[in-house]
Amino acid sequence: MRQLTVQDYESGQRLDKYLNRYLKEAPRGFLYRMLRKKNITLNGKKADGTEKLAAGDQNRLFLSEETVEKFMGSAPPRGREAGARGAALRVLYEDADVLFLNKPAGMLSQKAAPDDVSACEHLIAYLMDEGSLTEETLRTFRPGVCNRLDRNTSGVLAAGKTTRGLRELSALFRARAVDKRYLCLVAGTVEHSSRVSGYLTKEEQTNTVTVTAEPPGDPIETEYRPLGTAEGFTLLEVRLITGKTHQIRAHLASLGHPVLGDGKYGDEAVNRAFRQRLSLRHQLLHSWKLIFPEEVLTLPTLSGRAVTAPLPPHFQRCLRELSLRTPK
What we know:
Helix content: 10-25%
Distance between the termini: 58 Å
Shape: elongated
Structural class: alpha+beta
Number of strands: 14
Order of helices and strands: EHHEEHEEHEEHEEEEEHHEEH
Number of helices: 8
Low-confidence stretches: none
């Protein structure tokens, strides 16, 4: 018999999900059969797998050690994938359930291929370095990011350190309860604030999107205000009303104001000039602030909180070159 005690970071998930992670090699239906036969119990009682776990709950597996080891797999999942370093993260805010980091341009938010090293792997390495996570605990819970930024977009990335943090923070993003503010440097002079709408269609094969004024497509809304102009460029603060793939980049480009350095939707002649002038290698789009509602009942530590990521050096260098002020 093996006894598993639910830790605080694991609480809030369903029993069947917890067991599926721990006995990841078990055949489909095996765990439910063991639950029905009371070969697996929760706090000494029969369970069906839909129960929500709380810290301190006791799961007892009345199985042979040989069976448990076989279904656990030969080794714990690796938390330190090649190249992942906790030191690569710049932590902006952290509490018991959530963590916000300043993702650099060039880093993936999540894996796109098995060998990728994304912000998720760096997050796990960081939590292992500080001792709040071990390779063994990765059997039943894996921390992850709750919002996604394009590889070449820098700025605030939100992550859940516990089941509760991951679930509740993700729910806030899905409900559009988080006010998301970006900074970007665009071609052209923008003199007035505006809230614009359109329709976005994604082309899966090329991983690009098209924005049109009329359907078909997913409806989108983008709000922006100019913070300064110089030499035919404008620094914009952008607020996402909806949050679709490449929305800011494609929407602004469709309005004649492409983001500087954007290789997909930008102006190649302008981009080439800035590569030569300032060795610009990344688009100047930055996830600047995440602002939470005044009252967040599910995660009280986030109530009224604004998490801000300072601009990366390459963005600041371009602003200095144009004599534009860095926003505070």
